[in-house]
Amino acid sequence: MFTNLEELTINGTYIEELNLNSLANLKYLHCVDNMLANLDVSNNSLLEYLNISSGGDVPPFNSFDEIDLSNNPNIHTLVAAGSMESINLKNGNNNQDMYINISANWDLPPDVVVGHTCIEVDNPEAAQSNQSPYSEWVISHSNQSYSFADDCNLGRHNVDFSQTISIYPNPASDVLNIDPQDGVVLEKVELYNISGRLVREYNDLSKGSILVNGLGKGIYILKAFTDKGNYSERIIVE
Asked: Residue 28 is inside which H or E element, if any?
């Protein structure tokens, strides 16, 4: 690997680690659908473009929860579609030229939200009130909500699904138990596949469980309709 490399593309491989420490001149990194869960770009201060997306539920796929770009003041494009929970963009150079894609990659109905991304920025007050430069940012977030913060470790904006409805076992192969908590009334349940197609709807929930046998193995989105609101959770059928 050449130390003066400015562009690097590594897609669809079964790598679990990627050492970029020697690539001080790296500006463009396209690293989609590998087996990465962590990536250190702290030594790549010239980085401008980063794509670490995951495109499906069949390996290889990336499984990032967070990415730290605080040492990357030149970054202007981050494509992290999949399941990103937090992004650190406190790099001292937040400007108008920023594109972020944190979409869930599910092609689900727009009202189905499967996760939340917290974005740390230089000026969270300006970002939260949609002031410049953040008012000019383009953030794609299909089926994913987001918020700005000074520190994402202080009060993440994640809906604690387990406090509303307990779902088990997950993964499931035959029966999936759905147990509402604290007087929540469960009205109906829908299951969507990875293409966003409704595959099953359950209206009789008197037994407190639903059958998932006969479904193909993979990841699904369960959407539960209750008297307290609608909730979504990712489940695995095996």
From this structure: strand 28-30
Q: By the 8 A CB rule, do 16 and 36 touch?
A: yes
Cα–Cα distance, 238 to 50 (Å, whole number): 33
Q: Rounded distance, CA 121 to CA 206, Å?
A: 47
Q: Which residues face 99 on adjacent strands?
A: 77, 138
The three state secondary structure string of 143-196 is CEEEEEECCCCCCCCCCCHHHCEEEECCCECCEEEEEECCCCCEEEEEEECCCC
pTM over 0.90: no
H/E element, 7: strand 7-9
Task: Give the Cα separation of 163 and 64 in Å (integer).
Answer: 24
pLDDT in tens, the chain (238 residues): 567 899 999 999 999 999 999 999 999 999 999 999 899 999 999 999 999 998 766 678 888 889 999 999 999 999 999 878 899 999 999 999 999 999 987 777 777 787 789 999 999 999 999 999 999 999 999 988 899 999 887 644 334 455 578 889 989 999 999 988 878 889 999 998 866 778 999 998 888 899 999 998 888 888 888 887 777 788 889 8
Sign of CA dihedral 235, 66, 101, 59: negative
Domains, in order of start, for the chain:
1-158 (3.80.10), 161-237 (2.60.40.10)
